[in-house]
Every structure is written in structure tokens, then in C-alpha cells.
Specification:
Its EC number is 5.3.1.1. The chain is α/β, with parallel strands linked by helices. The chain is 45% helix and 15% strand. Helix 1 packs parallel to helix 2, helix 7 packs across helix 9 and helix 11 runs parallel beside helix 12. The longest helix has 19 residues. The structure holds glyceraldehyde-3-phosphate. The site of glyceraldehyde-3-phosphate has 14 residues, from strand 8.
Length: 255
């Protein structure tokens, strides 16, 4: 059975003090309210990770993620953060390939393949994002499916079946991120099913069935339940609604 995951992506929000308050609230609420089979992850800004890492250290069901990592292991890369630095503050996950990194930092499928390899070599689990822009979706559903599957082929399909087992993918239609416009539950499920079919064609059904596919894009307490009901939807990658502990935990409870 694959893992259910709700991961918050705080993006570039919250001061350190605000972040510590939010993280404490999430840890406490998750202990009391989160279903035991759901992994809760907070993707914090890099400067929060040490403090938040300490707050989640003893939490059974909460972990932290970095929002990016360098493809290099160490060295003269000003402003970058390495996988060993991320590991050293207790993070287990790293979000890679977010559309904002692809768009504003020109991250290509090839660079992302290198980042995936660097993360995996350090035993850091990628949450690998994919998703199409509005103009792609408007060319038709099949065009969108192919675009997303091509992203996965280019950045992930060099991996072994063993590594792909239990992998985490986040489908985030760019047109639904921070816009208030959510993909319908049906649109999300159809894309997730295409992604799983694509993985099965390369790695076999057993591996495909082990991959957790999260939905991201204006997911909130009012729509999470319907979206998570999709047979191939295994949770969410949550932006705006992860900045309020009550909303975030209500999403965690939406399976
Ligand atoms: O990483 C999270 C996604 O970009 C979704 O963001 P959003 O929930 O604010 O639309």
C-alpha cells in the first residue's frame, strides 16, 4: 500500500519566529488529530530548517523538507544549499522541480535529474513536482498528459525500479497554483492515473502502485476531501493553506 502524504510548502513566507509558532502548532495538532497513516511534512524556508527540525524531532508523524537543493555536493556555489547541509538539520525530504523554480530559476529537466541523483545519493527523499501551464492545458487534455509524462521521463526515468519504488511525485497544474482556481477532482484524478500508467509502462504495475502522487494547486480544507477521494490521489502539496495551522491540519484530516 502506498503512503498518504500531506506536505506544506511555505515558499518564501514567515519570519523565523512566525515559522517556529506555525511549526509548533502543526506538531501539536498533528499529534492530536492527524490520522496515523498520514505523513505530515513541512517544507520550510532554509533558514527555518534547523529550528523547525528540532521541533519535529520527536514527532512520530511530522517531518521537514527543504524547498530545493543544489545539484552539487559542496563547494563554491554562493547562495546554494547542499544535501548534506539539509540532512544535517534533520530533513528527510526535498521538494524538487517546483514550477516556480523551473520558471524563475530556469531549472531544466536535465538539471532536475542531476538534483534528484544528488538528493538520493544523500538519502534525501525527493518530492518531485511536475505540471503544465495553462496554454498547454488549453491545447487539450492529451497534450497536457504528454507534457507532464515527458517531464517525468526526462528527470526520473534513468532511476532504477528499486529507487522508483515508493517515490513521491506532486502534480501541480501551474494554472491552479496560488490562483484560487483548483483543478477539478476529476481533472486531478485523470492526470494522476495517466502518471501512474506512464510509470507502469516503464517500471511495471507493482512499482507504479507504490508511488505516492500528490496534488497541488489551491488545495484547501473545503476541496481537499473531494480531491483526495480520487483513486490515484495520495495526498497534497499545499502552498497558501499550509501557512495557517488549522487549515493545514484540516487538509491532513481530509482523506
Ligand atoms: O507547492 C505548492 C503549490 O505551489 C500550491 O500552492 P497553492 O496551494 O498556494 O496554490
Amino acid at each position: 500500500m502506498r503512503n498518504k502524504i500531506v506536505a506544506g510548502n511555505w515558499k518564501m513566507n514567515k519570519t523565523l519566529e512566525e515559522g517556529k509558532i506555525l511549526a509548533s502548532e502543526v506538531v501539536n495538532m498533528a499529534a492530536d488529530e492527524a490520522p496515523s497513516d498520514v505523513t505530515v511534512i513541512m517544507g520550510t524556508p532554509a533558514i527555518h530548517m534547523d529550528a523547525v527540525g528540532k521541533l519535529v524531532k520527536d514527532a512520530a508523524n511530522v517531518a521537514i523538507a527543504a524547498q530545493d537543493c543544489s545539484a552539487h555536493e559542496a563547494g563554491a556555489y554562493t547562495g546554494e544549499i547542499s544535501v548534506s547541509q539539509i540532512k544535517s538539520v534533520g530533513a528527510k525530504y526535498v521538494i524538487l522541480g517546483h514550477s516556480e523554480r523551473r520558471e524563475y530559476h530556469n531549472e531544466s529537466n536535465e538539471l532536475l535529474a542531476a538534483k534528484v541523483d544528488t538528493a538520493l545519493a544523500a538519502d534525501l527523499k525527493p518530492i518531485f513536482c511536475c505540471g503544465e501551464a495553462l496554454e498547454t492545458r488549453e491545447q487539450g487534455d492529451d497534450v497536457a498528459y504528454k507534457f507532464v509524462c515527458d517531464q517525468l521521463t526526462a528527470s526520473l526515468f534513468h532511476l532504477s525500479a528499486e529507487v522508483m519504488t515508493n517515490f513521491i511525485i506532486a502534480y501541480e497544474p501551474i494554472w491552479a497554483i496560488g490562483t484560487g482556481k483548483t483543478a477539478s477532482a476529476e481533472q486531478a484524478q485523470l492526470m494522476h492515473a495517466e502518471i501512474r500508467k506512464h510509470i507502469a509502462a516503464k517500471y511495471g504495475q507493482e512499482v507504479a502502485d507504490s508511488v505516492s502522487i500528490l496534488y497541488g494547486g489551491s488545495c484547501k480544507p473545503s476541496n481537499a476531501n473531494e480531491i483526495f477521494a480520487g483513486a490515484d490521489v495520495d495526498g497534497g502539496l499545499i502552498g497558501g493553506a499550509s501557512l495557517a495551522s488549522r487549515d493545514f491540519i484540516d487538509i491532513v484530516k481530509s482523506f
